[in-house]
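Appendix B. Extra example for self-study. Work through it before the problem class; the solution is given directly after the inputs so you can check yourself.
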Amino acid sequence: METDGRASDPIGSDPVGIESIVVVGGGVAGVTVLRELRRHGYTGSLAVVDPDGLPYDRPPLSKGYLLGERTAEDILLSPADWYGQNEVELLAGRVRELRPDDGVVLLEDGREIAADRIVLATGATPRALPIPGGDLPDVLVLRTRDDADRLRAALAPGRRLVVIGAGLIGAEAASAAVALGVETTLVDPVDPPLVPAVGPELARRLHDLHAEHGVRVVTAVPRAIERDGEAFRLHLDADAASPVPPARPAPPARPAPPARPGGADGPNGNDLSVTADVVLVGIGVRPDTALAEAAGLEVDDGVVVDPSQCTSHPRVYAVGDAARTRAADGTLRRRAEHWEHAMHSAVTAAAALLGRPLPEHGAPWFWSDRYGVHVEGVGSMVGGEATVLRFADADAAGPAASGAAGAPPAAGGPGAPPGNPVAAFRLAADGTMLGAAAIDGGATIRAARRIIDRGIVVDPAQLADPTVDVKRLARGR
Amino acid sequence: MSDAINLGPAVEIEEGEARVVASEEIGTDDDVTIFHAEDGNFYALDDTCTHETASLADGWIEGTEIECPLHSARFCLKTGEVTCMPATVGVRPHKVEVVDGDLVLYPNQAP
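Solution. Structure tokens for the complete assembly:
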């Protein structure tokens, strides 16, 4: 799946006369470039520029770090002494300008840094809500450690939080807020969100977890945010919310949780207004491409790169959320925003810089956590022919699991919906697997990933059978 | 303590599978997991991933590496070194041998 030789390879050092490399941005992509270059024996000068100083990992910012379970030191991507030990210069600051033709990166403080090659790992910036009041200064986003510190400071027990956007970040933040005793409302125009990521069945289950844990879930489009003294007043339009019909038949409807009285302050038709002390917006990101654009590089919702992560300038590479790949056949791929993709793109860029063979990375993977539940997805749940569901125990399994009988489903009665699905597998017409998603099923997803990457055709009945270890299906025994 | 401990027949752990030995039984800081790697050999490492809290015994054995079940960090089964982030700190390796068909673990001894 990826390059794997740990030993330094002296042949890999300085193969094409590169004496200096500057990495712009210290997220997982930027730091992976640094580590990979040194691991494979690059001996030239190496610097990373990031305004936040010591690079840290972002996924914990909406999980353990937000909850106060992990410290700033816990989430560092490399120990503080790694940079010195590996002769990596850590430049806390911002880049003003890329001058690849001159082999220079210019910092905002005026310093010029030699750069035979530049790697852009600039990441992305949260999108602002494009409504009146969406740009109020105290409307929060969650991307950096500073953002997380600011949000954490605002989340005191009894305070009222509205999270706009129930994607991965919004869901994780809502989960953390409830755990901190915050009165939390989650707003999204789509019910359920995340269908493209995990399929409709697990998306339903995951979205239902919010209400089960005391979050008020509102399906509505936000229309405006106003200040109301120290608080905010949000105007929401439930009519405009369009529960997107699933592309295939939905699973049996689950009983809706009872409406919480006093949920919305003033229902008026389908216009709701909600009062909040804290507003967090998590509606996606836009790639940080300003430096690339100013340098004249090709940009199209991301810095356009070839399969070696090289931009339209041969001395500039781009990795992570900021990059968008143009495939060998000329088509622009959708820009990926997950952690592992960032790391993989960086491994590729480092290989390309050192003239090493480019690694192959396989099906994309992500994880998320909410309410103590671990979610993973691999490959694609969009397209294909059929979904196979796996339920937690044999007694509650659907018809695909033969011989299911015995204990009544939790809801009771004939025709009651089965138990909750714990995994969904998306299959193509030829029986190969395209994607999989699972709740608390890391081993299942690791197995599914091999099944996808190796084109293994497995029996759908076995996939559905919770007594069958998916690992054995992947290993072909 | 680092006395050799007989863990019973090696054939009880299939290739690609792992077995946890509780720290109380063997006097180690962490539980120790015996991995039957795809090179046919057995390796022993501390069980807990150094990134967050997960049991490496539940992970995926690929060749002579173990992939954490939570965030896919990878460790070399032979040395415990990190081979893939998000972990940045290795796990402790322990010496394990097959003697007359039995697995013999030397807790806290380097392989």
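Self-check: The domain at 10-125+285-353 of chain A is CATH 3.50.50.60 (FAD/NAD(P)-binding domain). If your reasoning did not lead you there, revisit section 3.
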